[in-house]
Amino acid sequence: MKKNDKNNAFNTPEGYFEGFTDRLLNKIREEHAYFPGENGFKVPEGYFDTLNKKVADRTVGKKGKVVPLHPYRKYYFAAASIAAVILVVLGLQWNRTNLPTFESLASTEIERYLEESDPGLSSYEIAEAITMEALEVNDILDEKLDEENIMDYLEDHVDDFDELNLGTAEMGAEDAN
What are the residue boundaries of the structural domains of the chain, listed by start? Predict the structure, then answer.
């Protein structure tokens, strides 16, 4: 840092502290002449002798109005306890997980599971597990098979439509011969 003695604001003039006490006391004596000789506050005679009695007469024996600071405090506690119970119940309901049931699963989810994972069952083992009474043709096919779809398919793919024996009564008669 650079030393700059010219602009130092904390310098005091030479000889300032010599005789400082004498100058200060002279200044106080000069200004003391401006102060009044007596105290500006006066108390009547015998005031402090009767003060205790006056204060006791005004305070002892009289009951003042008591204003409670928290008049509804018990209601606040009741409201807080009800809110806590509600939060606990909602918290327990929130964390509860509903276990899926077989009825709630969509068939597409079951199909996707069987396609993506290998259950380790062959088609014969699956066929043994599913009874023929429970199985329908529409369960196997992607689209629902109805009479209109069958007739459209036969018209497009069969050359001689009459050669098909579609009548059940005719089939029973030919089998009998």
Answer: 107-158
